[in-house]
Protein 1
Amino acid sequence: MVKESQSSGRSRRPLIVMKFGGTSVGSAERMQGVADILKEHAGHADMVVVVSAMGGATDMLIRAANQASDGQEEPWKGSRQELARRHREVADQLLSASEQSSVLPRLAELVKHFENLCSGFTLLHEITPRGMDTLSSLGEVMSATLMAAILRSSGLKAEAVDATECIVTDDNFGNASPLFDETGAKTHARLGPLLKRSVIPVVTGFRGATKEGVCTTLGRGGSDYSATILGSALDATEVWIWTDVDGVLTADPRLVPEARILPEVSYREAIELSFFGAKVLHPRTIQPVMQKEIPVWIKNSFNPSCPGTKIVAAPRNGHGGVKAITSVKDAVLITLSGRNSISFPQLAARVFNCLYLENVSTLMVTQSSADNVLCFAIHQADLLRVKTQLEKAFELEMLHDYVGMLEVMPRVAIVVTVGENMKGTPGITGRAFGALGRKGINVIAIAQGSSELSISFAIKSSDMKEAVKAVHEEFNL
Ligand code: ADP
Ligand code: ASP
Ligand code: MG
């Protein structure tokens, strides 16, 4: 049972932020399932709902924006029809007549907005990052509008809320970060009065706005992050993330179908897993709730009776060794040698400054001091920007051969073993190496943090599935 909310002033009932992902709101049937889940819990707790766009809608919006900026009109006109059809179909099936009369014009207005934006991009043959954010997060505005109306049609009190009225972010369009003080004030002002009247706010995931009110997004998969940002702002009792799997699993079920549910994982383990590719959580989801120790649950909207995974500061079920395996598929390894001309500290400082300028995180770093070699892995998507920065920064040295040419190894995967209790358990690396060796998989590079929370192995992308399976099996997960 959920303990009562610590938040003063509001009601004394627990407050749960519930986020529903794209597959959980992907059709009329799934949206009705959401309404059923909320009806079941409405008696015990106050709720704030966060919704993603209907499954596939964000991909379609981004594709349409790119086609428009290429000057093509026909493809996005097709997407407009599809967008209108999918949402209208749900409205036809689930909304009462009076709800339809207010919601259908609103949905038509949003489709018109899509059309106006795409027309603009087509005329200009250009799309700006802020234009992309406004367009790509329209799916959330549509799904929140629909979901709130479905809840009202099911007898609950609900109101759609645009997160641009709550979440204040910096202006890093496409991957914005929240400004927590401003977000706290705006969220209380917008959602507080609704909660006081026992109205469920249905908030758009994924999007926020700058202080000036320009729409931003929190990065792909960002609705998880929206939920914990709001959970933290409201001092929620818990955050529940409803998705299409039973919880955090010992591996990606698409790679290892026999992966098992983990009943509890720590915040640090969840951060590590999501950073290294476990798509079930946006990489920054845990950050807003960690300090306040607000528990986060991962639950399956297709199987609501399964308890799911609880993410907390200190799990009770800690056992030695590896807890889960995760992997990043599209990585590249970059190697740079300072030869004898540049000291290693200088080489590292200048390389990391390039990464800093592009705001790119490394997935893995290794060094060999004897011949001044620095090797690091990044996401393939960041390669062009980083390579351009490095070439600029070391232009003179490369010209004079003072720095070894920048070597890029493409099609690399990083396989990562994660577990708080790997710390002090000897032999884990050896066992993983052994399991990979028996499958004939070559390890290109290896890295382990001093926290011993994770150990990373760089391998060829084509070996990834087999590698994850082999390591999963080795540790009897
Ligand atoms: P949503 O649309 O609900 O946000 P996502 O597709 O973003 O859902 O995330 C859920 C998916 O994450 C699962 O369907 C699963 O394929 C994938 N996944 C990858 N690694 C893991 C893991 N370790 N545990 C659970 N799911 C994982
Ligand atoms: N709809 C957004 C995406 O597909 C955000 C999310 O689903 O979390 O990236
Ligand atoms: Mg997701």
Note: The CA atoms of residues 248 and 280 lie 7 Å apart.
Protein 2
Amino acid sequence: MNKLCSLTLAAALLCAACHSSEKTSTGIGTRVDSVLALMTLDEKIGQLTLFTSDIDVTGPTMRENYKEDIKAGRVGAIFNAYGAAYTRKLQEIAVKETRLHIPLLFGYDVVHGHRTIFPMPLGEAASWDLAAIEKSARIAADEASAEGLHWTFAPMCDIARDPRWGRITEGAGEDVYLGSKIAAARVKGIQGDGVGSLNSVMACVKHFAAYGAAQAGRDYHTTDMSDRVLRETYLPPYKAALDAGAATVMTSFNELDGVPATGNKYLMTDILRKEWNFTGFVVTDYTSIMEMIPHGIAEDTASAAALALEAGVDMDMQAGFYNDALAGLVKAGKLKESLIDGAVRRILRKKFELGLFDDPYRYSSEQREKETLMSAANLEAARDVARKSIVLLKNDKQLLPLKKDIRKLAVIGPLAHARKEMIGSWCAAGDWTKASTLLEGVKQAVSPGTQVLYAKGCAIDNDSTQSIAQAVRTAQQADVVILAVGEGAWMTGEAASRASLNLPGVQQQLVEAIYKTGKPVVAVLLNGRPLTIPWMDAQIPAILEAWFPGTVGGQAIADVLFGDYSPSGKLPVTFPRAVGQIPLYYSMKHTGRPMDPNNKYTSKYLDERNDPLYPFGYGLSYTTFSYGPVQVDKQEMTQQDELTVTCTVTNTGARAGKETVQLYLHDITGSVTRPVRELKGFQQIVLEPGASQNVTFKLTVHDLSFYRRDMSFGTEPGKFEVFVGTNARDAQGTTFALR
Ligand code: BGC
């Protein structure tokens, strides 16, 4: 290119840049168009391409020459690169060495914290504390943006009802209502004051859609469901995240109704853009355009690329198929360039909104890195969320909380001092060497005179029983045993499906051997999904579900064990008794032959109960709560009314405590069958011993609406039951009618 031409280009871009502070949509639109007008077809396609750097590995392929790709304008966005210095270095290549100087976008999976790691998302969901969840996402975004990141691949909004699926740990669990509230809270936290504010990053709603319904819980597997189930159960959390302003969407690996999500026009165009008016951009999941070939829906690179673009996918993550095929398709007259232009516009718009044309380096700040990364305040917030996420599953004879001055305490188990596991999977730039273990948390919490013994007992997942005897001897010396068992972080997350949900390896043998010592045993579970632990539930007097609790997880668990915090977590997912019960979730249907133990011809198993080990919404406290009768302010409600539902909750124990009061609804008869219970509201209250509070919920016709027989969304007159209680099983009800 001659000098004059390149000067003209630079001037045009400068002009685009200097106006970009005018954040009006039309203002940005004009600027986007002025850049687009300068671009060659290849440069446009470069903007539609996202490649990984080699700083982190989150998928099966690498891109060795990504710096060359940047220089050549073959890539408009980079993921898995972070750090103020490194992102600046890469940005310099794009801004100084490419013809059009268009800045790069940097994305990363900041899923539950960036450097300060919070509990796994499923654990956070167990807090049911939307403000705490939003704060966790806010801190993650603050840290990530300081390191030059503009974009996180979160929140994961996939409803998951199959704990065999390892990715159940990345979401908010099984429920539509809770999942939607949490999805929105996470987006608000991630995007803070909005795209373009310095300590925010763009959210990416993933994985669109219905990835959590992979058959048999096997990752990447086929998903197939009715449109009714899709719309009623799986879509609402994604929609809630978009309504909260999420800037981008990621496709999912699964097929839906025979079409992989990445080539699925019904999802990406009809629902996302036309029904929901989504105006941001859509990125594929890792190499998922390429995967449409083994799926069996595209023959080659070109047909896969065309299928994705025509379905509504703007950016190709890591497959390089847009790079390889789109130009040829346009030149051969097989693809309209206007489709490419539309995608480029949506991506450039975000770069403008982020302020990157004003200052491409504005997020890469060593100063902010120093101030924010793992700051004392961030660590304290992580400890707070971790405490709130812990669920007390059992506490016979009030074994918990433990006294801090116990003479001798044994901390036993493969998860007791397992630093790496504390931060779980998808831990972004989290440094596991800085995490505290349960053993350390306990040692810090107990009184100086307490002796803390430790034995590992066995590995997380191998067959050796060699160390069990030593652990038994250690237990025998102690007054109380804290037994930490569960999963390895690598056993959850992506590509981590399990066919058994028992404790892995020989951990069950360890648990039984320690139990036989006759010592009081408190089991602490560290894991990313519901496990099948009926034996433990029957024999071990106290059980805490601590998930993967994050950087300060050790202290947080100790806070609960020794009563500095009374547990308040509630399960966001059902715990089955046996894998054979799966899928098992609270909002099931009655069937025509509801379970009757005395009647063979009813819906049940020969060899297992129907009900779960712990129901959705379940979690105990160190105090107890009683629920008075549920009252409604009218027996009949009209389409214009609101129904007020009230229940008095009393703290009947000896300590202050927090309770999550849950409201469930059941539409008794409809033009289509309705779930036996559906969560429609919850409130967290803190009560002193002996104190009572009237808890009031307002139900609107929206809460009573559903997809009717003809798939229109609305209500039907008839009778309803409304329940208020402490979990999805233990809730009292009353009835009312809708006219
Ligand atoms: C995962 C996504 C993730 C992406 C980028 C994929 O394998 O499914 O959730 O955002 O990798 O790391």
Note: The first strand starts at residue 49 and ends at 52.
